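Write out a record, fold above all:
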Amino acid sequence: MLCIPANSQDYPEEVWGKADLIVSEISGFNFPGIDYYVTDFKTSNDTTEWYTQAINKAIDVCSEKGGGVVIVPEGIYFTGPIILKSNVRLHISDGAILKFSTNPVDYLPVVETRWEGVDCYNYCPLIYAVNETNIAITGNGILDGQADNPDIGVHQEVADGGASVEIHTFNFTDINREWFSS
């Protein structure tokens, strides 16, 4: 994905030349024609509503067998974080809605990620992949992060920049290396 700032007209021409180079090097994806339906991976250990384990198991099996398409069929699926793996296309079908958990505990353990351009450890994002290749998310379904849920309002320390300052400070000190290595 290429992100262009809203005031992109202020960038010199050489920046646009680099953007064109990046876009020219992006190739299409190629996945084997094997389909894996998340509903086939639901076990009796899963709660009746939650599909976190089923979705991630379908992705794991798909990747282990050389890749393919993991299909979320029409319906509503409650889930925690989805971990994408190499050679997997996650297809969200028409009428499918992935409703992500609003409980922060569901996004633990922490993972290596980025916050405002700074490498750090933080909660797992809704969809996560690291060191994976040939992945895609397709379809006309809905990814619902439930940001309008009253149980997960924006915390004041984030709204006033406090969390950003804290992460930047923590990231550039030696204590973070000691904390995460123990």
In short: Residues 1-8, 153-160 have pLDDT under 50 and may be disordered.
